[in-house]
Design a protein that fits this description.
By secondary structure, the protein is of the alpha+beta class. The chain has a single domain, classed as CBS-domain. Helix content is 57%, strand content 22%. The chain is built from three helices and two strands. It has a two-stranded antiparallel ribbon with strand order 1-2. It is globular and about 40 Å long.
């Protein structure tokens, strides 16, 4: 998840393909990453959302 998030920030994209043995099996999006962050930590959602928006230019 961290690697995907870093790639998305570096390349200013909102999603990445998920591949398995050369076949597309899904897509990971900013929303997916945000959901994992919220589930795994006790955070102030408004502050984190603002940080993500600032980082992605959204």
């Amino acid at each position: 998840i961290r690697h995907a998030a870093k790639l998305m920030l570096e390349h200013k994209i909102g999603g990445l393909p998920v591949m398995d043995q050369g076949k597309l099996v899904g897509i990971i999006t900013e929303s997916d990453i945000f959901r994992v962050l919220v589930q795994e930590s006790e955070i102030d959602l408004r502050a984190e959302y603002f940080k993500i928006e600032q980082a992605t230019g959204g």
